[in-house]
Amino acid sequence: MQLTRYTDYGLRTLIYLALLPAGHKASIDEISQTYGISRNNLNKIVHQLGKAKVIQTQRGKGGGMFLNQAPEQINIGDMVLLLENTMRVVECDKPPCCISPACKLKGIFADATQAFVTSLQAYYLSDLLLEEQKPLLRILV
Predict the structure, then answer these.
(1) What keywords is this UniProt entry annotated with (predicted)?
(2) Domain boundaries along the sequence of the chain
(3) What is the helix (H) or strand (E) element at residue 11, kind and residue range?
(4) CATH 1.10.10.10 fits domain 5-128
(5) Helix, strand, or coil (residue 1)
(6) Using CA atoms, how far apart are residues 121 and 125, in angstroms rounded to an integer?
(7) 3-state DSSP call for residue 98?
(8) pLDDT, tens digit, for every residue of 103-121?
C-alpha cells in the first residue's frame, strides 16, 4: 500500500509543528518553503487538520498555526485515516468487476489494510521526533 503525497505532506506538517519551540507558530509559507510543498496543497492540508482540531490556526498579524494537542496524543494511524481519502488497496467497483461476488481478494486486502492501520496506530507523533544522533529538522526561530 502506498499513501498519497497529501498524507505524506500532512505528516510532515505535523512534524514541523511539533518541532517548534513552545509558544511559536508557523506559517504556510514557512512550511511550504522548508519541504518544497506547494502553498495550495498545504492550504488544503492545514484546513483539514484545523477542522479536525489537530492544529489551531490564527489569521492576521502574529498569526500562524500550532499543534492543538501534545505530540504524545497525536496518533499516526489516526492521522493517516484522517488524511487518506480511501484506504482501499483496489477499487472493486470501478469498473465493476465480474468476479466481485465470489472474490476473496477484497477480504484479504481488507485484512491487510486493517493490519497496516493497526501497526500505524502503535505510534504517535512524539515517536517521530526522537533522534539521538542528529536533529530531524532545524527550525530557526
Answers:
(1) DNA-binding
(2) 5-128
(3) helix 5-19
(4) yes
(5) coil
(6) 11
(7) coil
(8) 898 889 889 999 999 999 9
Residue with cell 502506498: 2
The predicted structure's pLDDT at residue 24: 93
CA dist., res. 89 & res. 133, Å (int)? 36
Cis peptide before 95 (omega within 30 of 0): yes
List the grid coordinates of 109. 486486502
CA distance 17 to 65: 8
pLDDT of res. 48: 96
Give the global pTM.
Answer: 0.85
Residue whose entry in the numeric block shows the C-alpha cell 527550525:
139
Closest residue by Cα to residue 84 from 109, 58, 120:
120
